[in-house]
UniProtKB/TrEMBL annotation:
NCBIfam families: HIF-SF_euk (TIGR02251). InterPro entries: Dullard_phosphatase (IPR011948), FCP1_dom (IPR004274), HAD-like_sf (IPR036412), HAD_sf (IPR023214), TIM50 (IPR050365). PANTHER family: DULLARD PROTEIN PHOSPHATASE (PTHR12210). This is FCP1 homology domain-containing protein. Residues 102-262 form the FCP1 homology domain. One of its GO terms (molecular function) is phosphatase activity.
Amino acid sequence: MSNKLASVNVRRSVRIMDKHITRKILKNLRAQIQSEKQSKQLKARIASTPTPAFCEIVTQVSHVNKEYFSQLLLSLKYIKTLRPVDNHQLATKSVHLRRRPLYENSKTIIFDLDETLVHCCENPQEAEHPITIILPSGEKLNVGINIRPYALECLITLSKNYEIMVFTASHKCYADAVLDFLDPHHELIHHRMYRENCVNIDGIYIKDLRVITNRELESIVLIDNAAYCFAYQLENGIPIVSWYNDKNDTELLDLAHYLNSLSCVKDVRVSNRDTFRLGLLSENTEALLSQV
């Protein structure tokens, strides 16, 4: 497969397995959530819930959506072909992000923006919320956004215990207009990172978490609908299904339960590895592709 074709497949394969795996883990727990009044009790119960076996994940996801599973495997296969990041480029992208008071020891949750928290519509009439983007030239562009169900609730809940950031491959002028609508007083989202902070590998913008110089990788997760965005830190990545306009979507609600459990783990990468098994899938892409 050519790099160009593979890149196209990557962009089409951003629907990953969070929905199926997370729901699998929490299936027997959710019925009791309403009666759980102590957050510590809930975290302990989530943490003690066993994760499904690798073969169960493969069977479940491929059975639900065979085409989707094939695209996921192609995405992981493509990630393995990416060349290492040039140290000079990494250095030029690096940032030192100051922590807010009371969050000095908190873990960091980073959200992607488009198709993770919101969906942008070029025609404002097709969106629930019109916004105006001021381009660097001074020109004004009117667009609209739809906000994913439970996005604000998720940010509000998680911001109580975690440092929240947004890292987008979009331009700053657009992202700031959207985030100023979502979080007008900058209360929920501590830091914003943009395309200028991504590393550019053969025209693909990748969110290398090493650009944040004063955070430890064991304490950072990145939620993104595009797997290639966390290509260089696969075990820090949490995949989420792309969202466009489904008002019945519950991805962020489901995911919030898992994210709450991370506050009591030493290394988030261990929990992610055991839950999502992306590394194991990546190691077996060729064999699995031959079976789907």
